[in-house]
């Protein structure tokens, strides 16, 4: 398990998977409450042909992770909308969306109470709220938000079906579900069926494995140094794999196609 922590978590039972991921994120948020670590995704780098998105100087260190949020969340116009991020983690993505994409309200929900405590301490932005909640049983009223963002989080859930049904329930008519995550390649058809069965119309389905690997490669040295300085003992090796550094199993599998990373824009 320690040499392929991600693959292990994908294969265990749904109930155990929820419990293990929750404990991991609870531990990380409590053990490492550093404000330098507010993004946990693998990032996105489209290549030299793209025009870099403008960022504040202090956010350049997180550029690749921010680029993933930007790419996914700008699939539709979120300005003046009520937006929900499910699986908001350490809060960097929700903060970026609120500050740069200008929704009316931005709410981040996460299963880890420690992560929510960290976010409420770390991110002070008008109109941005973080609350504890369950992706498979969202404590929101029917048709209460205009868009739901879910980035690199759903692989932690016990039931993708329950989660997608909850997203459909809380979205207003015509609302959008902006999704990005990785899966074993053989599970992609199942994901498509889950979206369709819930009632979503696919506006965009995009394979972005290459762009994610590009970002992994670009940030490899920084991640190695970051975890070298922060993490000690037995946890260093599994966290390197979890973080997707070069040579890790998840990096290899995204590179060779065993795992695929897709971005969807869906409409209710």
Automatic annotation (TrEMBL):
Gene3D superfamilies: Vaccinia Virus protein VP39. One of its GO terms (biological process) is methylation. One of its GO terms (molecular function) is S-adenosylmethionine-dependent methyltransferase activity. It comes from the Bacteria. InterPro entries: Erg6_SMT_methyltransf (IPR050447), Methyltransf_11 (IPR013216), SAM-dependent_MTases_sf (IPR029063). Residues 84-179 form the Methyltransferase type domain. Keywords: Methyltransferase, Transferase. This is Methyltransferase domain-containing protein. It comes from Kriegella aquimaris. The lineage of its organism: Bacteria, Pseudomonadati, Bacteroidota, Flavobacteriia, Flavobacteriales.
């Amino acid at each position: 398990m320690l040499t392929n922590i991600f693959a292990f978590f994908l294969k265990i039972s749904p109930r155990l998977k929820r419990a293990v991921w929750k404990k991991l994120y609870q531990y990380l948020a409590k053990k490492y409450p550093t404000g330098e670590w507010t993004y946990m995704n693998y990032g996105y780098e489209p290549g030299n042909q793209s025009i870099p998105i403008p960022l504040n100087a202090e956010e350049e260190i997180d550029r690749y992770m921010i680029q993933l949020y930007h790419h996914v969340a700008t699939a539709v116009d979120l300005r003046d909308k009520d937006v929900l991020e499910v699986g908001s983690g350490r809060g960097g993505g929700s903060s970026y969306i609120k500050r740069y994409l200008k929704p009316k309200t931005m709410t981040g929900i996460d299963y880890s109470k420690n992560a929510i405590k960290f976010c409420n301490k770390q991110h002070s932005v008008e109109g941005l709220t973080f609350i504890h909640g369950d992706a498979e049983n969202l404590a929101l009223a029917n048709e209460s938000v205009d868009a739901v963002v879910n980035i690199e989080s759903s692989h932690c859930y016990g039931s993708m079906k329950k989660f997608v049904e909850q997203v459909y329930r809380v979205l207003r008519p015509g609302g959008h579900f902006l999704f990005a995550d990785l899966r074993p390649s053989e599970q992609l058809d199942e994901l498509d069926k889950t979206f369709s069965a819930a009632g979503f119309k696919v506006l965009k389905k995009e394979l972005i494995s290459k762009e994610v690997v590009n970002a992994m490669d670009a940030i490899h040295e920084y991640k190695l140094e970051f975890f070298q300085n922060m993490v000690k003992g037995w946890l260093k090796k599994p966290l390197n794999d979890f973080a997707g550094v070069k040579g890790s199993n998840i990096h290899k599998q995204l590179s060779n196609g065993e795992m695929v990373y897709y971005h969807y824009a869906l409409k209710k």
